[in-house]
Specification:
Layout (H helix, E strand, L loop, with lengths): L2 H27 L2 H19 L3 H12 L5 H28 L8 H20 L1 H8 L3
Helix pairs in contact: 1-2, 1-3, 1-5, 3-4, 4-5
């Protein structure tokens, strides 16, 4: 098990769960076909936009393996660092789009942050077997 394979699993699961969450949200508020189409579009656009994040996720996985803690504590540290990384990306995108680092006036921004935290948490927790195998390698 390599750090890049664990990072790819976490990244793909985060994308898929995030697209699923937003697809279900849009499905509730819109017609069925458009909700499905929006979920697929979010997945494809997210895939294209977040590929460079793999350069940061893999070293974070390696760094979490070097921590002198138990596996669950390492996983918690990794979740926190990944959430901070995604939050910084959202801040940068918010600054590019609206010239403010955090758009407090937008409910959608809060929903995006919450959905990202939830899907990141689910993605890392469901990847725990691969993560723990990586942690136990010499």
């Amino acid at each position: 098990m390599t750090s890049i394979s664990v990072a790819v699993k976490i990244w793909v699961k985060t994308l898929f769960i995030g697209a699923l969450i937003f697809g279900i949200g849009i499905l509730i508020n819109a017609d069925g076909f458009w909700g499905l189409l929006a979920g697929v579009m979010i997945f494809v656009i997210g895939f294209i936009v977040t590929v460079p994040l793999l350069m940061f996720i893999s070293p974070l996985v390696k760094l979490s393996a070097r921590l002198p803690y138990g596996n669950r504590s390492r996983m918690g540290w990794l979740i926190f660092c990944l959430f901070v990384m995604y939050f910084l990306v959202y801040m940068l995108l918010s600054f590019i789009l609206s010239y403010r680092f955090i758009n407090f006036d937008s409910d959608e921004y809060g929903r995006l942050i919450l959905a990202t935290f939830v899907d990141l948490l689910i993605a890392v927790v469901t990847t725990h077997r691969s993560l723990f195998k990586f942690y136990e390698q010499p």
